[in-house]
Structure formats: structure tokens, C-alpha cells
Design brief:
The protein is of the alpha+beta class. It is built from 7 helices and 9 strands. It has a domain of 169 residues. Helix 1 crosses helix 7. About 8% of the residues have low confidence.
Amino acid sequence: MSEHTHELTPTPRGPVCCVHVHGAAAYRVGYPPTSWEWTPWEFATDGRFTGRWDDPAGVWRTLYVGATRLSCYLEVLAYARKSDELSTALDEIVDNDGDDEWPTIAPGRVPRSWMAARITGSGVISGWFVVPGDAETMATLRIGFRALAIRLGLADLDTAAIRDGRPRVLTQAISQWINTLTGPDGEPVAGVQFDSRHGDGLVLWALYERPGDRRVSSRVTPLEYGPVRENDPDLIEAMRLHNLVWED
């Protein structure tokens, strides 16, 4: 059974809100063998990963998990959503060779091979997580990162910027600082708890890799894992919400 306790913890810039989760149900859609392993460094770009809360220096890795399987599917399938601007641009591309050797999949369609390559897992997580969207945390973040946000073209640093996660330079810089903090228990924080940009109440966690971690974070207890199945109700719902269909 999970327990959620919120507590303010001091930092040199001001207090941040931390939430303690103990035995909280967590889900992940990833790759074999179990989906819970840290992503191998060989898949990084120039030694760095590009996620919202990843380390811009490429020293430690981040594992993204959700409080529900639906939230995970919404995150990993967002790339395939239709975009009016992209669809128009694709329509304007002229194929001078008439060559279909390298066909592309239209926006709004997902290849069935997407399922075959992935694993869905369930487990539990525990630890103290910083909550960037909390009012106390946001007030502290504005002290240290508002100038960076403005330099990057944002009008201000607020929860909208945190939730959108663009530009990545901003959220990764914030994450790099959060990674140095200790929680109310005096230990390094486990990571970040944040809301999905795809809907209110879709809780996500980014777990930080720490010295001594092996293939799986010490904050994670994997329970079950298996293939992604087309008849998974959460997958069906995510496809519906994103207005996606399978490419046969």
C-alpha cells in the first residue's frame, strides 16, 4: 500500500516540496528484458539523453515511470499524433523518383512492429521526490532559473513551462540542480514527481541513477512484465485519446 507524505526541505535557494512515496504502484513501457533497466549509454546522443529531466552533462541516467499504464502509453505514443502543420508539409513533398523503397508512415498511424519491440512492466517504487510544480518549489526555481527561461525565449518561469518541458535546456538544467539535493531523510532525492502534459492527474516520476545502482534502480521493485498487447485496455484508450490507428 502506498503512502504519500509532503514535506518542505531547505536548499540554499529556498525550500522545495518533496513527496514521499512508499510502495507506490508504478508502470513502465520500455524495452527487453523487463523494461525496468536503465537505458544503455550506447543509445544516447553524443553521450547525453534528451528527456525532460535527463542530465545535460551525461553523467547519470533517468528512468521515466508512470502511476498508471495509461499515462505511460500516452507519453510514448505522443510522437505519432497528427499535426496539421506536419501533414501539410508532407503533402507538399514531391517524390521525383516515384520510389516507394523507403515508405514513411503517415502521422496518426502506428506500425504494429511498435508493440513487438516493447515490454510493459509493473512494480513499486519508494523514496523522496521533488515536486517542481508545487508552489513553494516554483518560487524557489524562479530565483535560480527565471533568467535562463527568459534567455531561452519564455516570458517567465512558471508551471506551464515546467509541464510543457520545452526547451529541454531549461528542464534539464533544473533537473541537474535537483539531482544535487537531499530529501527530508538526509539522503539524495530519488528523483522528480511531475504531471503529464497529456492531462491532469496523470502522475509521472523520473528516477535518478545513483552510485551503486545496478541494471535496475534501487528505488524500484519490479513485479511483473510482459509483451505489449493490442487488446490492452490502457493501450486502446491511449490510442483513442491520441486519435491513432494501427498501420497494417
